[in-house]
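chain below, 83 aa
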Amino acid sequence: MTDKRLLVFTTLARTLSFGETARLLGITQPAVSKNIAVLEAEIGAALFVRYGRSVTLTDKGLSLLQISEKILAGYAEIDNIKE
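prediction:
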């Protein structure tokens, strides 16, 4: 069980690379961008500052990272129950 947008966000927040995130998750770079754009629209705030090909987290992005890591850990616990 997982929330794909949170997984994409968390992976991008850790790697700070759209290409590496796409490679790790087995999706395309445009798919990474789209997931982040949808999440930013839902939250109503930028989560990353983009500098050409580089990205860094905004303050709201840092806050969301802390929350999303807890949520993804909870999903992992649910998966363990299913096994």
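The mean pLDDT is 94. Residues 59-82 form the longest helix (24 residues).
thats it, cya
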